[in-house]
Amino acid sequence: EIIESGHPAIVDAAFLWRAERDEFHALARETQARFLIASCRAPEAVLRRRIARREADMNDASEAGIAVLESQIATQEPLGADELMRAVPIDSEVNEAGLRRGIDEIAGRLARTENADALH
């Protein structure tokens, strides 16, 4: 409904399995929406520290602890070659400037896609 109303949509999920990603890619094709994958990455040690800090602070709505992280690591399906062409890697270990670079890359790729669409 969001896409069909002319608004951009960001789907926030882990999308660990190819089938899940394929469903949203198919939806994007069906609705003629632009489609990119923000591939957020951080070393496992960093993820473990973040979870430990979050659990110690006890002020986060997420219930995803170490067991969830371990399950995700064990069952995730890596991006396929075709998905990598649509992926923007974002190193979530870096500081705000590094995250900003990832966001700027996404914005630039979407703008190039939009301009290409306008030419056809």
Explain how this protein is built.
The protein has 120 residues and is mostly helical. It has helices spanning 18-31, 44-57, 66-75, 81-84, 96-119, and strands at residues 37-41, 87-91. A two-stranded parallel ribbon has the order 1-2. The longest helix is centred in the last third of the chain and has 24 residues, at 96-119. It is globular and about 45 Å long.
Helix/strand layout:
Layout: H1 18-31, E1 37-41, H2 44-57, H3 66-75, H4 81-84, E2 87-91, H5 96-119
- SS-derived structural category: mainly alpha
Q: Uncertain regions: pLDDT < 50 for 5+ in a row?
A: none
The overall strand count is 2
Describe the sheet with the most strands: 2 strands, parallel
Distance between the termini: 25 Å
**How many helices does DSSP assign?**
5
Lateral arrangement of strands in the main beta sheet: 1-2
- Shape descriptor: globular
Order of helices and strands: HEHHHEH
Beta strand %: 5-15%
As a whole number of angstroms, the C-alpha radius of gyration is: 17 Å
Produce a short descriptive summary.
The protein has 120 residues and is mainly alpha-helical.
Which properties best describe this structure?
5 helices; two-stranded parallel ribbon; single chain; 120 residues; globular; mainly alpha
